[in-house]
TrEMBL record:
It comes from Rhizobium jaguaris. This is DUF4352 domain-containing protein. Keywords: Plasmid, Signal. It comes from the Bacteria.
Length: 186
């Protein structure tokens, strides 16, 4: 009888352990970003910084001046330019990671084809208590340029750090054939 009781208890313990293992989140989930989610019309604030999306522009051609030389970039897809206002709360920091999550769920990082454009967020240093405005530029397929979410964080793939996700309002996106970026914005 004792042997049968021992086998039942060992079997029950094994079932409980198997259940606990199957329901425990993975290491990546446990140490992933601390997400804050909001909408475009709101200033979305995490523990370390805040983001407010002012306007979104879609264009086929991107034009700007770099080192006194005019640059023009065209795309098979679409350029998405987001004007944002950023503010850090406690420490001096830079925003090194901004991505657009498209309709397919794929993430698109800032385009390096637009490096050197004026007012890029990645070139700014944020100071506590002072707001700073800038732009982030993405190049993505036309099909993914609807139902978009802007994802902003201090660093790529943040672990146990703030990440802000801003759902973009499709009705406020301005369509242009050519977007010219100057020192005063788009």
């Amino acid at each position: 009888m004792r042997l049968l009781l021992s086998l039942v208890l060992v079997g029950l313990a094994a079932l409980i352990l198997a259940f606990l293992q199957s329901t425990t989140p993975s290491y990546a989930v446990l140490t992933g970003p601390i997400e804050t989610i909001g909408r475009q019309k709101d200033a979305v604030s995490s523990k370390t910084f805040s983001v407010k999306v002012d306007k979104i522009i879609r264009a086929k051609t991107l034009a700007f001046t770099r080192y006194g030389k005019p640059i023009e970039r065209q795309t098979e897809g679409v350029w998405v330019i987001a004007g944002v206002e950023l503010q850090t709360k406690h420490e001096t920091m830079t925003i090194q990671a901004a991505e657009i999550e498209g309709a397919s769920g794929r993430l698109y990082r800032q385009s390096h084809r637009a490096d050197g454009a004026p007012r890029l967020v990645s070139t700014k240093t944020l100071q506590p208590g002072l707001s700073s405005t800038g732009i982030v530029i993405f190049e993505l397929p036309e099909a993914d340029a609807r139902d978009m979410t802007l994802v902003v964080s201090k660093q790529p793939s943040p672990q146990l750090d703030s990440e802000i996700r801003v759902k973009l309002d499709q009705s406020t996106i301005e369509m242009r054939d050519r977007a010219e970026i100057g020192d005063n914005g788009v």
